[in-house]
From TrEMBL:
Transmembrane segments: 44-67, 74-96, 108-127, 139-157, 177-198
InterPro entries: Pr6Pr-like (IPR049713)
Keyword Cell inner membrane: no
Alphabetically ordered keywords of this record: Membrane, Transmembrane, Transmembrane helix
Protein name, entry field: F420-dependent oxidoreductase
Organism lineage: Bacteria, Bacillati, Actinomycetota, Actinomycetes, Micrococcales
Highest taxon in the source lineage: Bacteria
Record organism: Cryobacterium zongtaii
Length: 215
């Protein structure tokens, strides 16, 4: 089994997170250069928020390694949750939305946010041995952010009329919206269960120097 130094993994994580931030920033400024853009709308998309949250979790983990400190249990759990979100982003886009109009307009940034970073997050979680088995009783944590996101979207849709995705627009009927919210919850909890399950497997090809978690 190949063993990679923990610091090398940390640098790789920071590089992946930086590429993602560059993709988000490039998309924002590219859009702003052609039309007036509302930051609250731009950063209201699940894809953008999930990429930023995953980049933050990976960066925090990497910085702790470079500082010679251990990753707390809450950070490992946060990385598990954001990995689940990125799985959902990648699967939904590449199975249902690829080729459709809308979304990220810069082709390279679109690829980073919907393909490269989701795949990286999954591989990093599956192959790097710096997380132990996560208790199933904590699985509910992966739903916290999506529930809050849906709540904010529904409030905005009912007040200022803006929604990131047409299927969440209240004008289509709250029965339809509720159905899609439930589907989002099922997708997220399924991805979360897969991530929690992977935490019980030993990496098969790549392993960093162990980083113990506390808490």
């Amino acid at each position: 089994m190949m063993r990679l130094p923990a610091r090398s993994i940390a640098v790789l994580r920071l590089s992946a997170a930086a590429l993602t931030l560059i993709a988000v920033g490039a998309t924002f400024f590219s859009t702003a250069s052609r039309a007036t853009i509302n930051p609250f709308n731009f950063f209201g998309f699940f894809t953008i928020q999930s990429n930023l949250l995953a980049a933050a979790a990976l960066s925090a983990t990497a910085v702790l390694v470079l500082l010679g400190r251990t990753a707390p249990a809450w950070l490992v759990l946060a990385r598990a949750a954001t990995t689940a979100y990125m799985i959902v982003v990648g699967l939904v886009y590449n199975t249902l939305l690829v080729g459709l109009p809308g979304g990220v307009e810069l082709p390279w940034a679109n690829t980073v946010l919907h393909v490269v970073f989701p795949v990286y997050c999954l591989l990093d979680w599956a192959l790097v041995a710096d997380r132990g088995p996560l208790p199933w009783r904590r699985l509910w944590v992966v739903l916290v952010y999506p529930v809050l996101w849906c709540a904010v979207v529904l409030v905005r849709g009912a007040t200022d009329g803006w929604v990131p995705y047409p299927f969440l627009n209240p004008v289509t009927g709250y029965g339809s919206v509720l159905l899609y919210v439930l589907l989002i919850a099922v997708a997220v909890i399924t991805a979360g269960a897969a991530v929690f399950g992977l935490s019980r497997l030993r990496p098969v090809t790549v392993r960093s120097e162990p980083v113990r978690t506390r808490g």
